[in-house]
Specification:
Blueprint (H helix, E strand, L loop, with lengths): L1 H14 L3 E5 L8 H10 L3 E6 L4 H10 L5 E4 L5 H7 L3 E2 L2 H5 L1 H12 L3 H17 L5 H10 L17 H21 L4
Parallel strand pairs: 1-2, 2-3, 3-4
Helix pairs in contact: 4-6, 6-7, 7-9
């Protein structure tokens, strides 16, 4: 583990850029205690993106981290839960696909409107459930396209979104697009 601490220290010393560790790599997964140690010992490590699918790790990080540490979630199916526990935000496929809706979900939790937050959460979860992971970036690009962005294909060898995948996404997307439209500034 000392090599991992040294690795992040070297990155920060060479770049001087604040580091937010993406904790999902299966062959170098960092425990909560390891993440806390890195944030304590390496001044440039400002926080963590916890993406293992383990909401308990997010909870433990929020419980034990220093106030200046940033704890974000990358667990798409648990955005509401992470926000309700106090996560500072999220970096995930859904936050890229529907940034307006995920910001509204975060804001609803912050103001204590849990009914609205849960409604958005379950709508986002329906979308998450129909976006296959073998070509998830392509699915995200398709959702972005449905909001007016150009549709670009994924990098090879990833498959583009199939007609069946588009249909599955479209079947659950409209309520989310309506939420996004309501928050859009008037033109």
């Amino acid at each position: 583990f000392d090599a991992t601490v040294a690795h992040f220290r070297a990155i920060y010393e060479e770049t001087g850029i604040p580091i937010l560790i993406y904790n999902v790599i299966p062959w170098n997964y960092l425990s909560v205690d390891a993440m806390l140690r890195i944030m304590d010992e390496v001044p440039g490590v400002v926080g963590m993106k916890q993406s293992s699918g383990d909401l308990k790790s997010v909870s433990d990080l929020l419980l034990k981290a220093k106030p200046e540490n940033i704890v974000t979630s990358g667990i798409d199916a648990l955005l509401y839960s992470a926000f309700a526990m106090g996560a500072h935000g999220a970096i995930s496929a859904l936050t890229c696909a529907l940034p307006s809706v995920t910001v509204q979900l975060y804001d609803a939790v912050q103001r204590g409107d849990h009914a609205a937050a849960l409604d958005m959460h379950f709508k986002l979860n329906e979308l998450w459930n129909v976006m296959p992971h073998d070509n998830l970036p392509a699915c995200v690009k398709y959702v972005q396209h449905r909001q007016g962005l150009a549709l670009y294909g994924p990098r090879a060898p990833m498959d583009p979104v199939s007609p069946a995948q588009k249909a599955a996404i479209d079947a659950v997307l409209e309520p989310l697009l309506e939420i996004a439209r309501k928050a859009a500034p008037a033109a």
